[in-house]
Amino acid sequence: MPTAGNREHWSSKSGFVLAAIGSAVGLGNMWRFSYLSAENGGAAFVFLYLVLTALVGLPLLLAELTIGRGAQKSPVRALAHYGGNAWRPLGFVFVAAGFLILSYYSVIAGWTLRYTGILLVEGFGSDIADRFGDISEGWDAFGFHVFFMVLVVGIVAGGVRSGIERSATVLMPVLFAVVIGLAIYAATLKGAGAGYAYYLEIDFSKLGDAAVIKEAAGQAFFSLSLGMGAMLTYASYLDRDQNLPGESVIIASADVGVAFVAGLVVFPLIFALGLTEEVGASTVGALFITLPHAFAEMGTAGRVVGLLFFVALIVGALTSAISLLEVVVSSAMDGLGWGRKRAAWVMGAAITALGSFAAFDISVLDVSDQIANNILLLGGGFALCIFTGWVMEDPIAEAANGSGRPAWLVPWHYLVRFVVPLFLGFVLWQAVPDTFEAVKGLFSG
Ligand code: PHE
User: Fold this and answer.
1) Residue 231 Cα to ligand 1 middle (Å)
2) pLDDT digits (tens, 9 = 90+) for 250-296
3) What's the Cα-to-Cα distance from 39 to each of 138, 168, 191, rounded to whole Å?
4) Domain count, the chain
């Protein structure tokens, strides 16, 4: 494939699509999606999340891909390419968001490594739920966080083709197979029906709840890796003949599909084993307390199923974390003139250090996640809409390159100009004060 200057490029079209799906599908689809669904009333949340992914997430995904491919640059320079220097600060906000999100994301990924280790060595005992406190905070959490970051840095240092693309091509099919297999297994459990009911029967009175809408919007962004330049960065390694509209639909469908199927694993399991109260009781830890408890009760089958589940989580976490680091690394390469290896190790070390706060205090992790989603990603998405809808000269033509100009690009432009920014403005207006309270709570308590 032709390359622009000496910028790295994907080796194939499907390589890019798999890497983008790898970025999207991660802890967000399994850990975050499940606990938020449980916390926000099940099916109503799921329904809102699906609608918002189609109407808000997908348009923004195409916007990010369009900017990245058109500019062939990392976020700060890509924004300046179309919008002039006034837009550079937004690029720095993206880099900061990548820093912050990866710092705690890696801690959670570390928990999954730890659980996998326990399953391999001894299996889960009946006390596994009580061990969450030790696993999630302190030196253990820190150690596994460092371990995970080393893996991520190692792959990113390998480059776009031999690191990022190759890992996604090998790992993503494994993840799909495991998640689908687990959903089929979960369907055979006695008592699974109550789980499906909770997950799929919509309580329409909850659809208008502003708090639920806010969480569903934040989740749609997080899950599609939007609002902080990850998809933009991946698209900057693309050639001009890639069909962006078509591929944005494939990427969004795969992301939603894995989240949905993960729910078909998690809820039947939890309900079949009668552990519903445990889920309601904790926030970020829900999945990491209740599911291991369920696996422990299931004996040998639980050990096998649990192992597969955690392996899928690790795979998802790894390919997503890679994209988070790539935003920071590509910016350091473009902006500071650093080589890839140096950028990966130096930035990786800085992010690891920042993550130690979340590793030693789970409430830091919780609040970081709220700041990242409710402010940085939603705010970043808002700014990107304004940028694409009002600053770029002809985004439809840029998006259409290589695709034969599908008719929905016109409503897409309209959504990006008017509907999505209005909606995000409304959500931000709700989300900012809540997040502010959460930050205050962290410092006062
Ligand atoms: N989308 C990833 C997930 O669902 C997380 C992520 C967010 C990755 C933002 C990159 C950027 O796990």
Assistant:
1) 10
2) 999 999 999 999 999 999 988 888 877 776 555 667 788 888 888 99
3) 26, 31, 21
4) 1
| C-alpha of residue 298 to centroid of ligand 1, in Å | 31
Range of the domain at 267: 13-444
Contacts with 103 (C-beta within 8 Å, 6 or more apart), sequence order: 351, 352, 354, 355, 357, 358, 368
Q: How many angstroms from the chain centroid is the CA of residue 357?
A: 21
- How far is the centre of ligand 1, averaged over its atoms, from the C-alpha of 125 (Å)? 32
Tell me whether residue 5 is in a domain. Answer: no
Does ligand 1 lie within 6 Å of residue 101's CB atom? Answer: yes
- The verdict on the CB of residue 28 being under 6 Å from ligand 1 is yes
In single-letter form, the type of residue at position 137 comes to: E
Compute the mean pLDDT over every residue in the chain, rounded to the nearest whole number. 92
Residues 6+ apart with CB under 8 A from 119: 295, 303, 306, 307, 310
Residue 6 forms part of a structural domain: no
Q: How confident is the model at residue 445 (pLDDT cuts 50, 70, 90)?
A: low
Is ligand 1 within 6 A of the CB of residue 219?
no
Q: What CATH number is given to the structural domain containing 434? A: 1.20.1740.10
Interval 26-80: pLDDT, tens: 999 988 898 888 888 889 999 999 999 999 999 999 999 999 999 999 999 999 9
Under a CB-based contact definition with an 8 Å cutoff, are residues 28 and 220 in contact? no
Per-residue tokens: 166: 């190759």
Q: With a 6 A CB cut-off, is 319 part of the ligand 1 pocket?
A: no
Residue 344 lies in a domain: yes
Q: Flag whether 4 is in a domain.
A: no
Q: pTM for the full model?
A: 0.95
Q: Which of 179, 323, 376 to mutate to test the pocket of ligand 1 (most atoms within 8 A of CB)?
A: 323
The predicted pLDDT at position 3 comes to 42
